[in-house]
Design goal:
The structure is a homodimer. Chain A is mainly α. Chain A has one domain: Farnesyl Diphosphate Synthase (Orthogonal Bundle), CATH 1.10.600. Helices cover about 75% and strands about 0% of the residues of chain A. In chain A, helix 2 crosses helix 5 and helix 8 packs antiparallel against helix 14.
Chain lengths: ~325, ~325
């Protein structure tokens, strides 16, 4: 997205400053995280919404800071997420990972959450603090929901969607809302952008889950089928279960046989389940687009619509 | 402390309400933590300071909520601390990561931190949010400092004190300060109570570390010498190192031989090191008392002084 290239570059620089700490280990753990080429999707959306709703398409200092905070929270959640998923993997394969890494990971996550709280408070809007602090409780609830339904093939598509809301969509919805709060937008606009973010976030998670099956390992940054190994049963699998009862057995055995992962992926690919999952993602994208297009007379909505479409097109 | 018995009872009730979540696992993990008989020292201090500085010795609703938030943050830090230290029992009961697993423990901690942020924002004082969010960054820095100096017998008493500040005293100092902010106290009073909390917190940590050597397992709620097993070299050990070089060898071997723990404790007890550590704690207690006694004309300071003394007397 050309129009926000300068802002994204500045964001990367600021992220490094914001996580500065005297502590070399904590710093290098945090730095490594931000160096890894994240897609910066959350900041991109915040920037584009800011340009859409602010006068003269300007992104305010507070909105830029919000974008940074959102990226820090997202990164913190990834760190803790990794510990959680490593634990699951360890259960099946007895991977030895040293206590030291776990230790630093717990702390680096705590440190990032805490830094984000501090910067958040310094935005000087209690309303924004309230909106954003909701994200972390939702994240924790979402991960626990995921833990509770791990390897449970009775999971419904509704609880899959609910889980995805807590895990992913809440963060995007709340940061979209916070962007409008910082612009002193009306309650109506705040709610609309909350909903926009919610639908976008849900589509984003569904697409991510499809990519876990159809993507190449090197693009994903993790082996294909990682979700299944961790017991995370996603939309394409849920849609296939009734047609292919053999999958239930593999789930019961917690995908401990490596060949079962590929077999499950192939079984899913031979049905229309991936298309069905795509359709749900598409529906949410359409709902998100509808809000931007019809409810407000934003003439400059082209870029936000482009990004919204882009998220869907990742799988095409 | 009779005068705040009702408030403490109400605090226990409220804590259960505040951590309510639809999620049964998260809830039972959190409940287990709050059921375990904590000493409620942090809330006690907040209540007593409130009574000292407020008119008519009333504790305001916001100050009561602050006490609850402080206890939640403290508990959240304990959960993550236990993962880091691989500690199996806490407050006499199983820790969350033993009773459940690492996964739930990471999330339960995140959930509690997030809940506390949310309640904090709803105190409607940005100044308090800023003061309290400092605690969690300090906590993470303190734990990493501890990790970096684990089993390092070159640790100085100064870095031991610095570590204790980040780990323990910062929380008490910041919550004492926040109590005064909620009373719209002057900057001077805010700073004084910050210092009071800081000295009290340092004394508290030093005494806790002494008790880890001299206490009985059942009183401690964890085995004696736990600090050493985790590589946490505390004041009494640091003071003994130069006199008894044999200890250095045990540290190098990371106390992997169980008999070394008892031998180290006995070696320390045969010197004046415990007394020297006590002396430092006593100094900090005196500094804390000095602030309450001399700098302000609080006539009703008896109870706060009693608690301050009590913390020291735990080891006598």
């Amino acid at each position: 997205m050309k129009s926000i290239q300068i802002e994204l570059r500045q964001l990367n620089k600021n992220l490094h400053k914001m996580i500065a700490t005297e502590n070399p280990i904590l710093y290098s753990a945090a730095k490594q995280l931000f160096n890894a080429r994240g897609k910066r999707i959350r900041p991109t959306i915040i920037f584009l919404i800011s340009k859409l709703i602010n006068e003269n398409e300007i992104i305010s200092t507070e909105q830029k800071r919000l974008a940074e905070i959102t990226e820090i929270i997202h990164t913190a959640s990834l760190v803790h997420d990794d510990i959680i998923d490593n634990c699951d993997t360890r259960r099946g394969t007895e991977t030895v990972h040293t206590a030291f890494n776990n230790k630093i990971a717990v702390l680096a996550g705590d440190f990032l959450f805490a830094q984000s709280s501090w910067y958040l408070a310094n935005l000087n809007s209690l309303n924004v603090v309230k909106t954003i602090s909701k994200i972390i409780t939702d994240f924790a609830e979402g991960e626990v929901k995921q833990g509770m339904t791990a390897f449970d093939y009775q999971i419904s598509i509704d609880s899959y969607i609910e889980k995805s809301f807590y895990k992913t969509a809440s963060l995007i919805a709340c940061s979209c809302k916070a962007t409008t709060i910082l612009n002193q937008s009306s309650q109506n606009i705040q709610n609309d952008f909350y909903l926009y973010g919610k639908h976008l976030g849900l589509a984003f998670q569904i697409i991510d889950d499809i990519l876990d099956l159809t993507g190449l390992s090197k693009d994903l940054g993790k082996p294909a089928g990682s979700d299944f190994i961790n017991g995370n049963l996603t939309a394409p699998l849920i849609f296939t279960l009734n047609k292919k009862p053999k999958l239930k057995k593999m789930i019961d055995q917690e995908f401990q046989f490596k060949e079962h992962i590929n077999e499950a992926i192939n079984t899913i690919k031979n049905t229309n389940s991936i298309q069905k999952a795509k359709d749900i993602a598409e529906e949410h994208i359409q709902l998100a687009i509808h809000i931007i297009k019809s409810k407000h007379s934003y003439t400059n909505n082209r870029e936000l619509l482009l990004v919204t479409h882009y998220l869907l097109n990742r799988i095409n």
